[in-house]
Amino acid sequence: PAIIRRQDYRPPDWLVPEIDLDFALDPARTQIRAVLSVARNGAHDRYLKLDGDGLVPLEVKVDGRPLESGEWTLDGGALIIPLTGDAHQIETLVELAPENNSKLMGLYASGGLLCTQCEAEGFRRITFFPDRPDVLSRYSVRMEADPARFPVLLANGDPIEQGSSADGRHWARWTDPFPKPCYLFALVAGDLACNADSFVTMSGREVKLGIWVKEADLPRTGHAMEALKNSMAWDERVYGREYDLDVFNIVAVADFNFGAMENKGLNIFNSRYILADPETATDIDYDGVEGVVAHEYFHNWSGNRVTCRDWFQLSLKEGFTVFRDQNFSADMGSHAVKRIEDVRVLRAAQFQEDAGPLAHPVRPESYIEISNFYTATIYNKGAELIRMMALMLGPERFRAGSDLYFKRHDGQAATCEDFVRAMEEGGGIDLGQFRRWYEQAGTPHVRATLRHDEATQTVELLLEQSMPPTPGQPDKQPMAIPLRTALFDRIGSAHKGEELLMLTQPQQSFTFGGFAEAPVLSINRGFSAPVIVATDRSQGDLAFLSAHDDDPFARYEAMQQLMVNVLVGRIAGQNVDEAAVVAAIRDTVVDPHLDPAFIAEAIRLPSEAYLGDQMAKVDPDAIHIARDALQRRIGQELEPLWRDIHARTKANSFSLSSAAKGARKLRNTALICLVASGVPDGAAVAFSQFDEADNMTERQAALATLANGASDEREAALDIFYNRYRNDALTLDKWFQTQAFALHPDTVDLVEELGRHPDFTLSNPNRVRSLYGAFGGNQWAFHHRSGKGYRLVANCIIALDKLNPQTAARLVPPLGRWCRFDDERAALMRGELQRILAEPGLSKDVTEQVGKSLE
Ligand code: DPP
Ligand code: ZN
To answer: EC number(s) (predicted)?
Structure first.
């Protein structure tokens, strides 16, 4: 397949200032008439090329004149038309069968609805068009459909008129006054109910808000609506950004490749990020709804008003928008806990990506299939880059930079470089070296060594940085790394003030005076840079910080590092002091000044995958055994504490307050510890939590705890859960996911069975992710030494690729991590990758991911 390169970018040959679309909608046979006004862009004699994917032109007209079949050609799906003038009107007619569209790209059917997904390149599956984000057009859209099956007709922008046609069908016209790239086009037709509300913007305009779902789901839309209104107010307050249309609609659909899509004025969501009620949604789900609603709303400015010049700039909108939604969620809840959660995601997804064969820069240089680049690097690392700039600038200058960015590029298709330049000029900073963060893939490593000199009462902090090679980038230049740092006095348990150290050289040292005794180093506080820091701090130092650090992230990090050292040491056969971990956990749990949600985060053992990341070669079995044993010991030694917490965090009634959420989080953690201790009534306690809970957070946590064990209660709870939720797809996903995640010796066999379960289907991406996606993240089970786990996932990829290549390709990365494992496992993993690659008719999505994974 062809490789697309960033350096080959050329402005479009033809622009399309206006497009008029007419959809005669029907699941089996939809006709689409498109009228494009096209304008030659600059002086050239190149023909007009309109991208198409699987389309057959039934009619082609130029300026109203029908073309003979020899007057146009198809080239790899694209429609080629030679034109003589500088401006013409092009009309095409195509026909589609949305109900047969299993890729869920373009126009497709989901649960009786017709809907669209165009990002990145789905619009070319709807009509012939220059499908690239730097072609911006004004859209007018007419939809016509059977009013019984499709009473609601929605598109981008504002509704203009509607009516009935003579043949009993009905129609509606929507126009969007803001020029947009075609990836932001959307329409929805279906039998939908609306949660209607409104928002008055900062300039006093009233915006009509609608969340459209199946009638039965209406009671589950309240949280999403609250999140939307809070997002609108937050973007006005924090960024000065006001909504710009008179209506804002959101539609929830069951079958969706992404989490959601920011189409102008008509966001389309995976229903899992809209629907929530206490019976079916966990607190994590509630937070997911809030965060994704905010994310898509924020795209209205960072993505839509200012869009991307080309797909290499994807992080321009995604990194910035993730940064915005992270800060919004932090403001809605706890900054400390949100930061810990975000860093955990970054380390689990992005650091692994950076360390493997699919590593790529935040601004990639090339791709085969752009769908493969909706990655943790583009999104989460991209957000960290914005966060570092915001840190270096401070809030006022960062705001000045973002104001300049929006002002300068409103209505344009911009680049990452445009953003950086706006930050430099608006904020007043030189980001010359910082630009390498966009160019170099891989996670920087920083080694920090503290040397104390008693005679001069000074300390020298030596910082060294390095960056491992990544595909296509054997040698790296030093990065500009902002490290928030403090030095703690052991006696007073305080520091003299934090400093922001800029590490810009391969090696650099910083000297601090006034230390009669060697202080304790607190570094990369708040996770100020997305790097891996190694220090020479003792377990005693870490225990000290886990009790005294006033930066919550650094405190959490010290605790985690304390645990990592013990576990990795134990796996290596060293003599380790587990008692120190138990003591630190006890001290944290009983600290009355700490937020229960923070406590729950801090005392959680590092995941098996994170422990694997700390080892030269991952040994999944040894990691599981060591972690399990430490969890048991923590459970046993502090058993009365866990019983006490579990009892006293039981709430009388459900609430979504931070206090109630924190209590549930701590209660679930206490349950894990208690059950891990092996006490005879552990499973009974878990089962009664499962049985008595009035919310999904506690019910699902109890189920997950039981699923790790082998009790009778395990089977009972799984049966009850299944029977209770078998008709609720989103909740049934949790039943699959909990079993696929289970730290249980038979998980691999169970996943195989579940793949044949009558409720399992490859046609719903959420269901696929809840089984095979979750399983790929279960290190111990997936890496079963038989290789069975690899085979299961490979089988799924091969089967799914025929239906939905985009979702199939997302299952590849766990198989691509073979070089991190022993030779036997590596050979088995490579064998499966080769088996996939040998499959005839493989999509370019999967071909790219598997091909790179084998290199
Ligand atoms: N819909 C995806 C997102 O919002 C891609 N833009 O991130
Ligand atoms: Zn996004």
So the answer is: 3.4.11.2
